[in-house]
């Protein structure tokens, strides 16, 4: 699915496998906001380049060019 | 072991239920309620960027006071399973993990080597590891030795509904391990769940048998009763099997 929002900027990253162009050195909190997600919601987690970033560091951690960001949540499973 | 306890938490119900594959969300919630289960499994997947917000499973299960057991379904390597477990711990605020490391798409059988590696890493990282494994007593013993909080051998392949295909191995596992023994996968109908419990298992984890039943809520209720009945039968102690009859009514003082 294409992203519902366009994020202005000139830094390329991948979020959940999709190409995104974002503001250089955007932090995780702001990235989630730009993706129209509530960063304070319960039940989500973020990994950058296969490293889980705790919620407490979402403001501090900036994303670098070509990073692979994964944003996950719980879904129905067995 | 009279109480069903996982990581210092005592549960009344010995049935653990999956949340996948129900006709809809409403039937899922009704089925979970009917099953009496206190532990429900979930998977961790990417958030989708769409304009239609999906149901919030995490919030729903939490509101109902369920213990949420995230799985690592779909992982084929220890590395992926460990990352998924860490994401689950962060997202769901739980150190419980149903560890699945699959070796083959078609059979969904566990990759024992990868499973043991992942279990070791996660136990060291402080996770409460509940591994889905083969019905192999030695693998189960190794998982216990590593420090897993339970062992969860399959009764039959996931979603197959073939029941407990090797009850003798389950019995041997029961004798070999001290941690809770939970049959995970293979249950097709209520009698399968009862058999698992009669063999001395501490619990049964199932999903498809309820989700894909013609009437899921009714099947959930049947599973609840089967697990309770099987447990009671195990505690009561079955009579030995004999080839020939032993009359139950008195043989003396018959009319002539």
Characterize the structure shown.
The complex is a heterodimer of chains A (78) and B (256). Chain A is mainly beta and 78 residues long. In chain A, 9% of the residues lie in helices and 35% in strands. The radius of gyration of chain A is 12 Å and the shape is globular. The mean pLDDT of chain A is 89. In chain B, 39% of the residues lie in helices and 16% in strands. Chain B has nine helices and ten strands. The longest helix of chain B is centred in the C-terminal third of the chain and has 21 residues, at 216-236. Chain B is globular. The N and C termini of chain B lie far apart (52 Å). At the A-B interface, strand 3 and strand 5 of A face strand 4, helix 2 and helix 3 of B. Strand 5 of chain A pairs antiparallel with strand 4 (39-46) of chain B, so a sheet runs across the interface.
Average pLDDT of chain A, rounded to a whole number, is 89
Order of helices and strands of chain B: EEEHEHEHEHEHEHEHEHH
Query: What is the makeup of the main sheet of chain B?
Result: 5 strands, parallel
The number of helical runs of chain B is: 9
Output the structural class of chain B: alpha/beta
Taking strands numbered 1, 2, ... along the chain, how are they ordered across the largest sheet of chain A? 2-1-5-3-4
Distance between the termini of chain A: 25 Å
Strand content of chain B: 15-25%
What's the helical proportion of residues of chain B?
25-40%
Cα-atom radius of gyration of chain B: 20 Å
Radius of gyration of chain A: 12 Å
Average pLDDT score of chain B: 95
Oligomeric state of the chains present here:
heterodimer
